[in-house]
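does this look right to u?? zinc ion version
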Amino acid sequence: MVLEYRLEPTKKQLVIVANERSGRPLVFGKTKVTCPFDKGVEKVTPPTKLALPNERQWRTRVFDNAFAFLKRRGKFKPMKQGELYWTSPAFGDHEVIVESDVHGALYQELGDEQLQLVLETYQKRFRTLSAQKGVECTYLFKNHGQKAGASIDHEHSQIVTLPFVPPVIKEELEANKRAGTCLHCALLKREKKNVLAKQGAFTAVCPSFARFPFETWIVANEHIRSFTEFSAGDNRDFMRLLRDVVARVYGVSHDYNVLYHNSPRTGELHFHAEVCPRPSVWAGFELGTGVLVNPKSTEEALAALRAVQV
Ligand SMILES: [Zn+2]
Ligand SMILES: [Zn+2]
Ligand SMILES: [Zn+2]
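got this back:
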């Protein structure tokens, strides 16, 4: 059993070797009997860490990922400056957040009340996990559909903690430093014509430089560090906008990821969620060059997303 961070030295690519994951079950289709996220079979997952509104009548439930690629095991060894062949135990947390007690209910079908419980669950786990010693970054994400990496189709997200700031978030922080300004504040001004929808203090934009067809970012209008700083009104507005975006994205791609970018422990990042439809997989060109081909123009993406009946 191996659970280790390793550095691929020729590209400075961080890798987690986690061979326990290869035993993951695949649950697709409405096969109630075999879904480990259903009500009544809680014992098949690791113990409940949080359930809302309560453990007996839960409508959201959190537990450690049974096939975690990060664990609170061993001692993290930070990478030294210039270290080429760095390895360290893959220390961290990796939890599953089940977002509905109804198998087969899609995220965009969840009502306001359920969505508020979902966001409250994200925020509570985010706060608890982030407060632990040694956590530099807490990251929430959602995989929906097999092409987006999901292995179970019961709606859920995952939350992880890392003892370092991962490369993508580090790059976003450094890009702001190089630009001398917040690029997400700037985005809202630059991409006005690419706005898909607005709700309260949030804007959904299809950026002109989208990496994926129909990629949509939900950006807080004000410079806010984290979704843990939302007001009650923000909570409602954000989830309504997210539901609208997910419904539209689902209309064009049943496979999608949601990447929540909050500020790490140190550093200032403008809260945003990147909704990335994954109708196609990265192929040899993308993998070997790091250059992504997006087969949809921004105008086509906006037109298609606007045309989806929600
Ligand atoms: Zn289920
Ligand atoms: Zn900003
Ligand atoms: Zn981001």
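Residues 172, 261, 272, 274 surround zinc ion (ligand 3) (CB under 6 Å). idk if thats expected tbh
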